[in-house]
Amino acid sequence: MSLAERDHNVIWHPYTQMKTAALPVPIVRGEGALLFSEDGRTYIDAVASWWVNLHGHAHPYIAQKVAEQLHTLEHVIFAGFTHPAAVTFAERLLQILPRGQCRIFYSDNGSTAVEVALKMAIQYWNNQGTPKKKIIAFRDSYHGDTFGAMAVSARSAFTAPFWSFLFEVAFVDVPVSGKEEETVKQLEALARGGDIAAFIYEPLVLGTAGMVMYSPQVLDQLVEICQQHDILTIADEVMTGFGRTGRTFASDYLQHKPDMVCLSKGLTGGTMALGATSASEKVYQAFLHDDKSKTLFHGHSYTANPVACAAGLASLDLLLKEETQQDIARIQQQHKTFAQEIQALSHVKEVRQQGTILAVEFEDGATSYFSDLRDTLYSYGMDQGVLLRPLGNIIYIIPPYCITKAQLEQVYQTIRGMQEVVSGQKQ
Ligand code: PLP
C-alpha cells in the first residue's frame, strides 16, 4: 500500500472534504523552497506551507539549533520554571516588536495566540473593575479556528455550524480603497457607544479573506480612534509578521502602536508549532495584584517548548541577516514587475501586492472556497510543479525568502497559464 493510501485509512486532514478529496501528496523531503514527493515529483512551495516557512525547508542552521536544544532540554513545565531558550527568545522578540510591547506570553499556534489576546483584553477590563462586553473586528477577517478566534472571524461557511455558540462581535467593513471613510465612521460610532473592550485586526492584509489589502494610513486612523476612546488594540500579525509585508511587522508602517500583538507561523520560521502574544506595560500592569483571582489563568502543556523557542531564535538569526533582507527586497521587486505585466491580461480583475505577498484575482465569479475553478487552478498548479492554494478565484504567492529568481519566475509562469485556463484558452 502506498503512503497516500495508508494515510487515507487513518488520517482526517484539516480543511479537507474527506469523501471527495484526492489522495494526499506524499512529501518525503524538503530543501529550500522545494518539496519532494515519494513518487519523484518536485514542487515549489509558493505558499510557504500555509504561510509558515521563511527560510526554506529543512534549513541546516535551524536543524542544528533544534538538535542541540533537543539534546539539552526538550521540555519543562513553564509555571514556576523557566529555561534559557524562552527567556532569550522573548528578549529578542521584544527588541524587534513594535514600540511599547513589554511581555511575551507563549502558546502553541496562531489561534491560541489570538485566544490569549482576547482573554487578556476581556480580563484587563474586569481586573480594573469596569467590565466591557464588546470586541470590534473586521467583517471578513480570519483569526483562527478556536472558539474565541472564530467569534472574531467572518461569519463564513467555515464557522457556520458554530454561529449560535460564538459571542457577539461588532463588525466593521474592511477599509479597502474607496471605503476608508465608511469604516472610520463605523468604528467611530461604535467607539462613541462605549462598552468596547478591544479592536482586533489583521494589519494591512487579510489573508484568508483573499489577501485583501488596505492602507496603513487608514489603519493608523482606526488605531488612533481606539486609543482616544480607551479601547485596547490587538494586531494579529500571525501571517504578516517577520518580514512578509516588507517590514519586520506590518505594524511598523503605523505611527500608532497596538497594545497586544499575536504571533505564530513565521515565529519559528515554519519549523515548530509555537504561538506568542505580546502585551504592553499597561495591559501587563492590570494583572499585577495581591488578589490572586486577577491572575491570567491560561496556559498549555507545551507552553514555551524549549525546542520551539530554539527554532524561533535560529529563525530570527537568519531573518536579521543582510542576505535575507536583500532576498525580501528582491522578491518585492520581482513581484512588482510581474504585477504590472499580469494586470494587463484579460480575465485579471485585480492584482494586489504588499511586500512579499502577491495576489492575483481573476474575474470569474466563482469566488467560493468550494468552487470548481479553485480545484481546477490548484490541480493546474500542481501539474506544473507549483504549490499554490487558490482562495476561490484568487491566487496568491507568499514564498519562503530563499526562493530563487528562477523558481519565482516558474511560479509566475504557472499563474500566466492559470490566466489562460480561466479565459478558456487552455484546458
Ligand atoms: N490569525 C491569522 C491572521 C491567520 O492567518 C491565521 C491562520 O491562517 C491564524 C490567526 C490562525 O493560526 P493557526 O492556523 O496557527 O491556528
TrEMBL record:
Its EC number is 2.6.1.62. It catalyses: (8S)-8-amino-7-oxononanoate + S-adenosyl-L-methionine = S-adenosyl-4-methylsulfanyl-2-oxobutanoate + (7R,8S)-7,8-diammoniononanoate. One of its GO terms (cellular component) is cytoplasm. InterPro entries: Aminotrans_3, BioA, PyrdxlP-dep_Trfase, PyrdxlP-dep_Trfase_major, PyrdxlP-dep_Trfase_small. One of its GO terms (molecular function) is pyridoxal phosphate binding. It is an enzyme of class 2 (transferase). It comes from the Bacteria. Keywords: Aminotransferase, Biotin biosynthesis, Cytoplasm, Pyridoxal phosphate, S-adenosyl-L-methionine, Transferase. Pyridoxal 5'-phosphate binds at residues 110-111, 236, 300-301. The modification N6-(pyridoxal phosphate)lysine is found at residue 265. It is found in: Cytoplasm. Catalyzes the transfer of the alpha-amino group from S-adenosyl-L-methionine (SAM) to 7-keto-8-aminopelargonic acid (KAPA) to form 7,8-diaminopelargonic acid (DAPA). It is the only aminotransferase known to utilize SAM as an amino donor. HAMAP family: BioA. Homodimer. This is Adenosylmethionine-8-amino-7-oxononanoate aminotransferase. It comes from Pontibacter ummariensis. The gene is bioA.
